[in-house]
User: Fold these one by one.
Assistant:
Number 1:
Amino acid sequence: MKVEAVELRRVALELVAPFRTSFGTQTARDILLVRVVTNRGEGWGECVAFPDPGYSEEYVDGAHHVLRDFLAPRVIAASDVRAADLARVLGGVTGNPMAKAALELAVLDAELRADGVSLGTRLGAERRAVDCGVSVGMFPLAELLDHVDGYVADGYRRVKLKIEPGFDVEPVRAVRERHPDVRLQVDANAAYTVADADRLAALDPFDLLLIEQPLPSDDLLGHAEVARQIRTPICLDESITSARVTELAITLGACAIVNIKAGRLGGYLEAVGVHEVCVARGIPVWCGGMLETGIGRAANVALAALPGFTLPGDTSASDRYYARDVVSDPFVLDDGRLTVPTGPGLGVTVDLDFVESITTSVEILRP
Ligand code: OSB
Ligand code: MG
């Protein structure tokens, strides 16, 4: 396949509710979409980087720059590109996994649409629908409970609360008292240190499925130490940057569960590699999210249909994030599940008129 052009398009979308985490608050999104034009047709990808380097080092202007000046030129210069070759084609560029993942997804989408194969089939999906959880940002307690009540009423199969020092035991206790049977987990986005092990152990009585990323991303030994001091299983998110690091984290005892996010891993193909490592080591995985539009969501739902994804993911319905999605076939919750698209490529149709109406800039790169 020959990539003839790469389009870098920024779109603006309001979130239906603010999303506050220990690394910042999102109220509206500034999203970088990637479209590739090839001799075999077009494909779409979504870059999950946020405006600030808070979740990880990447941020949307930086990802845009790296795509424009380093990644897209390599793909455009290659005489023949297949998604499976991208890791090699882009190999000279270190880091920047979210930028790489966006480009990989666009190339995968184009290739699979041309071949008439769905992304789920390409990745190894075995389910027709996936169990969905919801990740709830931090709010004042009364508001938090209202949001959780609403999501439980919607049918979400698991609730995740964001925590940080000073906002942990109290909200967890309140949600647990109100919803004794809901599957509940928490995500600290690296806001604690190994010295907070007692504070984290104070969450043990609330029957949480897991604690996600309590410590900084490079503190694998610290996570292993905390794991010895608490009963709740530790799940890693930010720390899991490759299949190799996943092997290391599991071997060190730093995690019992893994959150798989393609953007953090440089693409969906590496995400499948992490899934393989975890299945081989008996580690359950679930699909993380980064507030994606229907483009990234379609890919996440396909990934979450692989057999090792045995826990509900942060793959919520389109309307949990946006009043109107960028695809004509938004994701709708059905009995706590989303249906895996079966059409070629991503299996969703980008709503070009709507995308045009929310576009803030477009840049087209050619040879
Ligand atoms: O840490 O899992 C995270 C959103 C943005 C950045 C990081 C994270 C999240 C979420 C929300 O928790 C997941 C989603 O609903 O997309
Ligand atoms: Mg997380």
Note: The two ends are 15 Å apart (CA to CA).
Number 2:
Amino acid sequence: MGKRKITEEGLAYDRYLERTGEDKAPITTALIDMDGVLYDSMKNHSKAWCRLSDELGWKYSPEEFFLYEGMTGAAIIRLMMKREMGRTDISDEEAKDLYAKKAQYFMELGEVDQIDGTFEMLTTLRSAGIKRVLVTGSGQKTLLERIHKDYPGTFPDDLRVTAHDVKYGKPNPEPYLMGLKKAGAEPGNTIVIENAPLGVQAGHASGCFTVAVTTGPIPKEEMVKSGADIVYPTMRAFAEQLPWLIGARNYSF
Ligand code: MG
């Protein structure tokens, strides 16, 4: 039994325990978002949505697509169709066709970079024996297929939740609850790693300790408002502090 070092991670974890009534338990599982966490892809997603919007005559601001991050493509299409055209009768097929266009525009923008620090973050999780589950609202084939090459052995096929698996998508807790089920884990043993307010809301609502990393233009305050238990300014900063978070959770009194 040692003396516990007081860190931001330890304090955040204590607040989590107080808020949820969870017992102190080791982290066994990490539920990890894709866009803005593994890949610096949000700028191109926004550009692809803008191009589709121009084509359909929708009014928009490029920033709003950053705020929709986490929603499925079909959900964004339904939101825009309703707002811009007053239409609520979008069939699954129409949504699918429009999303295919957006996905094509995204692909045409070329390969996106990996987020700096992600490799180190995943390595720390792996070496601590923490199970990794991909939980993304995306259905973007190009990125989903790249994951195996860029992060080999990190996300087994049976430990993935994508746009194809969910009915509601983020901010509903559904994708994270599905991730917990696939991993056979409980919220009290699990951290969610997110970069977007709607994703943070979903993580928070699932009952997991939710980490937000501000890898895009959305400020820290939005992440806190959405229910983040702790916020890091960069993925590298999170990767460096991750051992403290694992330590705070795994330390037994
Ligand atoms: Mg994201």
Note: The longest strand covers residues 131-135.
Number 3:
Amino acid sequence: MKPNTIAIIGTQWGDEGKGKVVHFLSRNADYIVRYQGGNNAGHTVVFNGKEHILHLVPSGILENKKCVISNGVVIDPEALYQEVMFLRSQGIKINKENLFISEQAHIILPYHKYLDAIKEKTQRIGTTQKGIGPCYADKYARVGIRVCDYLEEDTFRSLVEKNIEEKYPLISEFISKKALLKQIFEQHKKYSKFIKQFVTNTTNLLIKVINENKKVIFESAQGTLLDVEFGSYPYVTSSHPTVGGISIGTGLPPSYISKVIGVAKAYTTRVGEGPFPTEIKSKLQDILREQGKEYGATTGRPRRCGWFDSIVVKHAIKINGIKELVLTKLDCLRNIHPLKICVAYKYKNKIYYDFPTSRKLQWLVKPIYKTFPGFSEDINSISNYQSLPKNVKNYIEAIEHFCGVKIKMISLGRDRNETIFK
Ligand code: IMP
């Protein structure tokens, strides 16, 4: 029996609108799984006229689905507590029957956030400052603290004391050692009890429910170009938003991932530093930012905006084995004339059809564009593909042509109802 699972993957630099897509698809799902990243993510979902921004808890929680935060995620206990309390205050039910947290996930502690700030001074990645990179660095340096360690008071204390010896000299400008330890242990007292109720072996849980033919959606955070292995390194996050991240981030064999859907925004954005070949360098960037409300859901930072880049999306299609795309935020391109799609890069008379690995080339390549007439019609309330204006259909079909895969679903607005199928 083929596992009843779908992976929802971002094909650009994150913020493609995955939250809405997962929320839409979660109506027919049983479990929604976050498998990487942490509260650096911000999934904005408009539900019942209200805007919800989720950072750690999968957006399926809004549909009262069972949600899993698996081993590949890094968890800031304070951020998790605040998010759960906020969602509960909005009338959303969260308890040990619908939220499951892996005992193997790594914990973000206050020193990770200070280390993030210190690193940023010299490295200038433009991180979210949530301690994500330093927490994953500890995991791979084999000094990380997992949820199961966090729940054993003596193990936790001895690991923290050891880590502080090594890390405190690097962060002494922010806080005294005594105050830092006090902060860590006070938080631990409060949040370890809170987290405990949700903790389980999520690998066993997922294997069991998939074998029972339950429908499971894997919700990636960030996007392929932010993958630490396949993104625009070093301007990336520290985890694997790509489909390969699911296996390691959940403990499920690759054969348990049946379908991969890529989510692409109808233009491109990125937050933070790093190369961005199709970034618009005129006032049009500000217009697009306003039309698309392109401000970071986690940090509020203005997102950099640019034209749709088929080289970037093709890279994601290849790495993730994407067979179909969801196109989002098409409505935000209204009144922009003409529209452009990048179909290749050029540097010193050489044409590139693949996203370059060289960091120098990533900065230096110039996009080659095809130009398309824009549209001025209000398309939000259109409910079938055939009724879309001709120029909109041409633009969609051009994206399909240059990316080489079909677009199956198109999002024309923030509300879940503003979605059509092709
Ligand atoms: P970090 O994940 O906080 O370490 O940040 C590394 C890079 O990933 C920075 O450029 C961030 O702006 C970017 N980033 C992290 N999370 C997101 C996200 O959810 N959407 C878009 N960019 C993100």
Note: Residues 114 and 172 are 9 Å apart (CA to CA).
Number 4:
Amino acid sequence: MQDINSFKKLLDKPKRIVIVPHVNPDADALGSSLGMASFLKKKGHEVKVISPTDYPAFLNWMKGNDEVMVYNDGNESAANDIISDAEVIFCLDFCSLNRIDKMEQPIREAKAVKVLIDHHHGKEDFADFECWNTKAAATCELIYQLVVDMGEQQLIDKHTAEALYAGIMTDTGSFRHPNTTKHVHEVVAELIGLGADASKVSKLVYDNNSLNRLRFIGFALSERLEILEEYNTAYFAISAEDLSKFNSRTGDTEGLVNYALSIQGITMAAIIIEREDAVKLSFRSIGDFAVNELAAKHFEGGGHKNAAGGISRVGMKETVEKFLKLLPEYEKQLHSNQKKQEIYLT
Ligand code: 5GP
Ligand code: MN
């Protein structure tokens, strides 16, 4: 945050505050939103978290979950009133307003002071205060640091610490991705010091599967995973029918793409999912291969170098064809990156 003193001043007196995570919030988006909400409430503010859409049930344990308003759950009109009446709006874990779906227009038009806290690339210039660092592993890491910089660490209780811990844990792939820095470990050590139970959070997030979900993962791995050795690429294509066959719920496909990336010799992994309104794509990569650039160029998307996503509006079959057709454009990069990895790992 460039101007921490003005930011502190903004929050000096009780205000009406709205907090917004990105569409389909993950643990970092929801954890940062509920963590920030709890912190701001302790400072005496009136806070409402409004999520553009629903999110996976394995995040429901976070304190404050019951009070989250889901915008597209028939709450549009009530939410719009709260947004237009807000004095401050926090935008968390996204940096361009097209990441909040139908909330884009009301948030854009709101007269409130806007605060952006995020670690993604492709920032739009819309906020009055920015705490934006693409080198940070998670928005939760940025929020923890911001609260420390404000000198108000004592307002982080056990529940807030656990929400923030969850965001850092998942965005670093359980402290395995290259974004796992010394600072990340320092922050989580502090969070544990503030009462976060690391083992409990890990169990709540990762060991909360329905049998349907496990069966679905088994099906996807055996029937829907394709390997394109010549492009060091692996992908899943999951149809709407596949999802309904396994009674798939929000979040059931999360993490699946990582199995594809774990295969020897794979530089890029993708999952292409036929959702109700569009086809959703998620990309993962290793090393220098930047999937956020591919997602931005071909699928209206973005994200991080090694984890990105996008959408396609041309139907499932056409989307898979489009993805396969663009691979030759990246063939050299996909190969050379794999070679570099082999050297790096020996
Ligand atoms: P996931 O594949 O887990 O949904 O997302 C991976 C990363 O890419 C996350 O940081 C997420 O915020 C970002 N991302 C996913 N989908 C989109 C998208 O459609 N547009 C943009 N700009 N970023 C996305
Ligand atoms: Mn994040």
Note: The pocket of manganese (II) ion (ligand 2) is lined by residues 28, 93, 119, 138-139, 171 (CB under 6 Å).
